[in-house]
Design goal:
The complex is a heterodimer of chains A (about 110) and B (about 110). Helices cover about 0% and strands about 55% of the residues of chain A. Chain A is mainly beta and about 110 residues long. Chain A has a single domain, classed as Immunoglobulins (Immunoglobulin-like, Sandwich). By secondary structure, chain B is mostly beta strands. The chains are: A mainly beta (about 110), B mainly beta (about 110). Chains A and B meet through strand 5, strand 9 and strand 10 of A and strand 5 and strand 10 of B.
Chain lengths: ~110, ~110
Amino acid sequence: TQLLEQSPQFLSIQEGENLTVYCNSSSVFSSLQWYRQEPGEGPVLLVTVVTGGEVKKLKRLTFQFGDARKDSSLHITAAQTGDTGLYLCAGSNSGGSNYKLTFGKGTLLTVNP
Amino acid sequence: EAGVAQSPRYKIIEKRQSVAFWCNPISGHATLYWYQQILGQGPKLLIQFQNNGVVDDSQLPKDRFSAERLKGVDSTLKIQPAKLEDSAVYLCASSPRPNQPQHFGDGTRLSIL
């Protein structure tokens, strides 16, 4: 069973601060996805990283996939209250029609005004 | 495009009762997923359909859970009889093909008394 460990589990910061959350595994994934989930809603895909060492930027969010494709990080610059939510990472392994996502438990981020 | 539709949004039942959830995926999406998200955890895949066939139901508790997607479009997930540990949010997701990004509905929050 492939497991994804996310840290920290909870994070509360002030608006304007920077933060990094982590997603680690002992298994290799063919790709890794980051989602944000707000209360009462389903997860929304932010980014997919595929290549080891890949860095992707989405406005103030920077995503990195580890060289060995076992870990990833999400860095947020100058956090805003709208960034509040549950950040989930999910790893996948290509398996033809049996493509499966394994989710971590998430990091619950609260950005205070 | 319209998103993934789920109903009901909330359901409260007593243990040992039965309950059913409905999902209408995005039009044209051949792959449909049901996930269980227990409070404080990430989504866990219960079952994956490709059109009207089951691809993966390895984590579905088949003694009490069942799911169908008879015409390859809408899907229903049923629990009979419900147990206290089934309290969770049940998320439906769809994608055009198995290795394409998944789009999630807002889920059904189930509470077992």
